[in-house]
Amino acid sequence: MSTKTSRSYGLSSITIVVALTLLSAPTFAADDYIPGSRFFTISETSSLLPQGFSNPSALTAELFQRSLQEAGVLNLMDWVTNNQPAPRPQEKYQRQNQFGAWLVRTPSKNCYDTRAMVLMRESQRPTTPWSVDPCYVAGGAWLEPYRGQPIQDAQKLQIDHVVALKNAYISGAFAWNNKTRCAYANFLGNRYHLLPVESSANTSKGDATPARWLPPNAGFRCAYLSAWLRIKTTWKLMMSEEEAQAIYQQVREFNCRPADFQMTRQELQEQRKLVSRGVAECPTTPPKPRIPPRPGFATP
Predict the structure, then answer these.
(1) Which of 132, 188, 242, 270 lies 20 to 30 Å from 26, alpha-carbon distance?
(2) 41 in a domain, yes or no?
(3) Cα separation of 85 and 37, whole Å?
(4) Does 87 lie in the same domain as 56?
(5) Which tens digits make up the pLDDT trace of 196-213?
(6) Is residue 37 part of a domain?
């Protein structure tokens, strides 16, 4: 270090500043970002041939192009290869700091948070509230999709983000503002983004992609993969090479229906409108956890 530089601040001061910077800088593990020399995104420009036109050569070029435009169908298995390392977050993932807790929407006519709303939406009969505090759901009738078993006690269920919050964060949500991340964490715009699942299944999944975890219920795996790709498309999230390769192989291994991996442009537009509404509902700071009347009652 030159003498001129040390005149302004003092050599010892600079050393201390550098040391403090190194100590405070976050240490990133391999799962804190998308690894590898390339990443994948789902194409929004691919269209599929509309049903009934199995022989494009029988159509005039003009009619064929118009048919594709009118069909407006995306192939969720059509991916763009980005031959460069994926952008990385500057901060490590921390749920409360970046996404917050379950949202209680205000103004609202009830006190239900997102967890309670998902439980009520997915129950096959009217839910029963907790006797101590009606803001919490205690009972209902759910057919849990990951293990394929019926559950009546809400305390045995957790609400799973199909694309886990950490995966969403390292796949692109690190660049969003707090309102958008809150909207993602609390999105109710479809029935596949948030699922009530058996607690141990959700714990075993953690933040894994389909490359590392799939539902034990084999009959739900194609629906799970379809939901995964729909979410990644709607929210413009990246996929790692390991993730993309696994999904490509699994869709074929499980003989998934091609129709389940198509998404109309209208559906995509509607989903993104609902995303915008969700962003408008969210506060500028991450929602804070609500303290239940009895510790341990509320589950994730």
Answers:
(1) 242
(2) no
(3) 4
(4) no
(5) 999 999 999 999 999 999
(6) no
